[in-house]
Amino acid sequence: GLLIGRRGETLRALQFLVSFMAGRKLGDRVNLFVDVAGYQERRYESLTNMAHRVARRVAASGRSIALEPMPPNERRVVHMALADHPDVSTASTSEGDGRKVVVQLIE
Q1: For the purposes of burial, counting CB atoms within 10 Å of the CB of 70, is it exposed (0-12), middle (13-18) or buried (19 or more)?
Q2: pTM for the full model?
Q3: Which residues pair with 65 in a beta bridge?
Q4: Are 106 and 89 in contact (CB under 8 A)?
Q5: What is the DSSP letter of 83?
Q6: How far apart are the C-alpha atoms of 15 and 43, rounded to whole Å?
Q7: Which of 3, 31, 61, 99 falls 20 to 30 Å from 107 in CA-CA distance?
């Protein structure tokens, strides 16, 4: 829990620092994936499941649903999970730390 932090914030910061240091050492940008006890994998699976549940609700009700603010990597998981959905589309709204995904009916 100490390495993961609240909602994965510490883990994201650790990933950024490790990527930054590796990039400085190698002289090129490095994308690394840091995970602790499978947290990232479980979180991404949870986000995918939640995205599909929300898509079903939007398709049934016809009303758009805005998800809670989340970091870019998690928004991307939601966008990718619903990319091929026949009834809904996704869009990111707001700015900064308040940026969130809105799931809406395709018109």
Answers
A1: buried
A2: 0.80
A3: 103
A4: yes
A5: T
A6: 15
A7: 99
Neighbours of 13 (CB within 10 A): 12
Distance CA 55, CA 64 (A): 9
Encoded tokens for 104: 């809406």
Q: Which tens digit of pLDDT belongs to each residue from 57-91?
A: 999 999 999 999 998 889 999 999 999 999 999 99
Q: Which two tokens stand for residue 93?
A: 């709204």
Residues forming beta bridges with residue 88, ordered by sequence position = 105
Q: Is the dihedral of CA 38, 85, 58, 71 positive or negative?
A: positive
Torsional sign, CA 76, 41, 55, 95 = negative
Interaxial angle between packed helices 72-81 and 39-61, expressed in degrees from 0 to 180 and rounded to the nearest 10 = 50
